[in-house]
Amino acid sequence: MTAEDERALRDELERVQHANKLLRGELAELKAFSVEELLERIHELEAQNAELRRRLERADEVRETWDKRRAQLTLELETAGLFGTALRPSDAHRPPPKLSASS
Question: I need a surface site. Which of 15, 58, 60, 102 has the fewest CB within 10 A?
Answer without folding.
Answer: 102
